Each structure stands twice: as C-alpha cells, then as structure tokens.
Amino acid sequence: MGMTRRNILSLGGAGLVAAAAGKAWGQSLPAILNQRYPDPSVEILDPSFAKYRIYSASVEKLGTGMRWAEGPAYFPEERCLLLSDIPNNRIMKYDEVNDTFTVFRSPANFSNGNARDREGRLITCEHSITRRVTRTEKNGSITVLADAFEGKRLNAPNDVVVKSDGTIWFTDPLFGINGYYEGEKETPEQSTTNVYRIDSDGKLTAIITDLVNPNGLAFSPDEKKLYVVEWKGTPNRSIWSYDVGADGTVSNKAKLVDAADFGALDGFRVDRDGNLWCGYGSNGALKDEPTGTDTAGRKIYELKGKPEDLDGVMVFNPEGKPIGFIRLPERCANLAFGGPNGNRLYMASSHSLYALYVGAQGAV
C-alpha cells in the first residue's frame, strides 16, 4: 500500500508509517499545511510577485521520513519526481498520479543532485564513495559520465543541470567527503572546487575554478546566463552570474545575490520569466557574543538568524531583488518545477517533500 493523502488522514496518530516492505513512507499529518486562502505561507515581498501566487493553492506535504532531502528532478513521461535522501543513501520517488512516495534506488552512492537529460534519462551526482556523475539508461543500466579530471578523482559531485545542446554541467564541492554523515570522509585530490561541463563526446572541462565550494546552478531561460551558488568565501553565500558563450565558455562574472551572513542559499531553479526560486534557510552561523545564560549560568550563543524565519523558498527577480518567499516548516535544500504544465513547485526540505502550485512555469 502506497502512502496517500487518504491513508495519511485515516491513520490519525499512528506516527511514521512504512508500507509495502518498508519502501513507502508517510506521516500522519494533514497534507495541507494551511487551510486559509490565500495561503499565508506564500509571502509577497514585491508587487511583481503577486501574479505568481495562486489564490486558491496551498503548500502540501507529500512525504516525509528522510534525513536530508536533496536534488529533485521531474520526469514528465512518468509524471514522477525523483529526489535524494543523502544520509539514508537512497533515491526516493514521488508518483503524482498515484500519490505514492517510495524508494527508487538503495543504495545510491550517497547521491545528491539529479536531473533529466533531453532523452528523458536520469543524470545523478553520486557525491561520495564513487564520487562520479552517472546516467541511468532506459534499460536500467548505469553509464559513468565523469569520475576524474586530469587523472585525479573528483571531489563530491553536488548539483547538475542539462543544457539544451545536451551538455551536462555540474558542481564539485567537498561536502560529500568532509565527514561520515553524507558519505565517507576522504582527502580531496583536486586542488580546487570546480564547475564542470561534460560535452556530447564525453570530454570533461573545468569551466569555473575560482569558487569556494560551488553548489546549486541553473541557466537563464535563453541559456545566455549561468547562475552558480558559492557556498563560502565571498564572505556570504552568493549567486554569481556568468555570460555563456557560443563555445560553452563563461565570462563577465558578476554577483547577482548576496545572502546575509546568516542566510543559506542552496539549490535553485529558474522560471520562464527568468526569476530564481531558491532553497533557503539558516546557515547555522552563531552571533559573535553570547546573548544570555541558562539556568546553570552557562553562556548561550544564539544563531544569527532564526530557522523559523528563514526556512523556505526565496524568489529573486532576474536583477537579484527578492520578490517572494514561501515559508516552510523545514529548511528547503533544493526544488524543481513539475506537473503536466510545469507549474507545480516541488520543494525538497530536510525531512520532507512539499509542493505548491504557482503562477510560474519552469524554464526548459
């Protein structure tokens, strides 16, 4: 039995429930987080965002039971979403027709980012153990697209996007080999953390080499701009913009978004109007001085930004101005547009998967 909204509502206080050999996960919580219209979780920060809020659409909770949800990718042929549950070393599948949430692949080499290529195949960043980018063929076999650069192993492939010409672009920070929670701790072999391009002939090129732990990436609708999140080193998390040449090179690096020193930009997607829909939350930074003491007189250092104020999706216009915010009860790491019309926003958020119908469509 798959976990559906009907099942969830009928289970009452049963807690976390595993169905069918432990492969379907759900929680006895209402699927709709807010009953009011318009949903107060969808905040308009600039009047230009109003047209993207659907008055009678609410944030829905579709599945839970993950430890760190990441890398959602939508497959219109099957009307399903695949996303990674990194610490649990598996890829999950949400079927939007049957409203089921099941395990797609386990183990999954601590997969992180996923994407659909132009032939409908799954592209996956395996960011620990194997440390490679793979393609799942239609028959289920796995093809390795990249696992080394200039004779040295990749760091930990993180996020990936496929350009209309079939080239595959991915980031390669250190996260997957920094410890034992999202993989295995290992010593990096690359001297830099790069953004790479895989050409149709399989050639691997380091396109950007001066970012400290590049993370999410996406193209503008016309693919003349490449946007990349830098996790650290600017000093705040930032989104950098690059002009993309006809030969696949990039130039004219410019900062588009600079998060506050407590804000965490992560994965993101771009809509057809060029807006950036970004996973957002607290980066865990502490205030420089203690803000008080506990009952035993010990100093307490609080976060610079409260997660409950930051968790969700921040939307920036093409000029980098924040215009909207979707407030979630969990930090959103990454997202994807899906649904038959490309206007259902899927949000991979810590332990759970959320969705919201919006007045925007994902850029293809």
Automatic annotation (TrEMBL):
The active site is at D266. The lineage of its organism: Bacteria, Pseudomonadati, Pseudomonadota, Alphaproteobacteria, Hyphomicrobiales. A divalent metal cation binds at E70, N215, D266. Keywords: Hydrolase, Metal-binding, Zinc. Gene3D superfamilies: TolB, C-terminal domain. Residues 68-285 form the SMP-30/Gluconolactonase/LRE-like region domain. It holds the Pfam family SGL. Binds 1 divalent metal cation per subunit. It comes from Paramesorhizobium deserti. The keyword Metal-binding applies. One of its GO terms (molecular function) is metal ion binding. Substrate binds at N158, E182. This is Gluconolactonase.
